[in-house]
Amino acid sequence: MPPQGQSPPSWVLEESDAATDDKDVAVPVPPSAEKRKLDIVWRNVILFLLLHTGAVYGGYLFFTKAMWATKFFAIFLYLCSGLGITAGAHRLWAHKSYKARLPLRILLTLFNTMAFQDSVLDWARDHRMHHKYSETDADPHNATRGFFFSHVGWLLVRKHPQIKAKGHTIDMSDLCSDPVLRFQKKYYLTLMPIFCFILPTYIPTLWGESLWNAYFVAAIFRYCYVLNVTWLVNSAAHKWGDRPYDKNINPVETKPVSLVVFGEGFHNYHHVFPWDYKTAELGGYSLNITKLFIDTMAKIGWAYDLKSVSPDIVEKRVKRTGDGSHEVWGWDDKDVPPEQKAAATIINPEKTE
Fold first, then answer.
1. Rounded-to-integer distance, Cα 208 and Cα 224, Å
2. pLDDT tens digits, 262-273
3. What is the DSSP letter of 338?
4. Is 295 exposed, middle or buried (0-12, 13-18, 19+ CB in 10 A)?
5. CA 339 to chain centre
6. What phi, psi does 8 have (nearest 5°)?
7. Which of 16, 57, 280, 293 is the right S-S partner for 266, CB 3.0 to 4.6 Å?
8. How many CA atoms, within 13 angstroms, populate the side-chain half-sphere of residue 38?
């Protein structure tokens, strides 16, 4: 529902005939959003208030009443449902940054259904729209309309007419041709309650947890937590941080978001190079659990054709449009020994002769 943008859950009232494109197009970013009349959907407001109230209570039970096995189970479901968004709907299907064999596509579709942020087809559609028309009225969660709007407010009001107007020309045939995604879309309203709420509530009772605790901890609290950390990619990752790859766009690099959303917070990089399966320049796993997952799947043969960007291309882009915060501009003749600069793979040409 982003993350990271992402589609609203099925119970959120929306105009569902908008579509998206899988090609990123440079769109001018307005300096600020004009004031717009908001057509509030009060049904959604009430539902989200009830959900978050239940989640706060579930969080209280998580820390005070739930059994340890239930807590670990809730964390496990958080990891699975999170990967259903980051490794599945986002990196695999929305951007096609790698390919997956049938077992992995089924697994990620299951994880995605558990996350309850609408079907992969709908999520990827909105996310492609977000990239193609980023920070315009055709962007479902246009960040120029403020933090609250880009975080959750876009789900509480009717979509801007531009989303529907721009969506009709978008081709989604590449994803519609996948029988796994068609199956999920067709039976979503049956599968989603089972994997998001019913099984997470029932399974903890097998080790003696109360039905009450299981429901509010493993189902409601876990679900709402995943929603909000995913939304941070739409809001915080478009507001607070550096722009080392392109200073002319809103998305930023924010490590705290990457920590809770499995590597999705390196957003300035991602909007510049959306086809990179890492969604980041970083090669390590400390803040990019999704990369670790995809790399593991590649080792067992379930993932293949992983796309990445060469360091040379990244360096050229940093020098051309970056804001100066990248390490390529970080060399200081007073502090760096000559032999270290000579051995470096990326050197600021303005600092060396």
1. 24
2. 889 899 999 999
3. H
4. middle
5. 41
6. -70, 155
7. 280
8. 13
